[in-house]
Design brief:
By secondary structure, this protein is an all-alpha fold. The protein is built from 2 helices and no strands.
Length: 66
Amino acid sequence: MRQEGLLSPNLKHTQVKYSNNRIESDHSRLKRRLRPMLGFQSFHTANRTLKGIEAMSMMVKKQTIS
């Protein structure tokens, strides 16, 4: 992919066993919230709902600017 120009030549691949845990923990919260909804009817609805869930989780974690 580097030869094709799709990846930056400065990109480094690291293999750390637990580096993805932080992302997966946030993802599991979304999955738990969305599973009872059984999917979305349109992309617009999915986009608005996910933005709202992300905004609420950022407020809970106090990551928003007041």
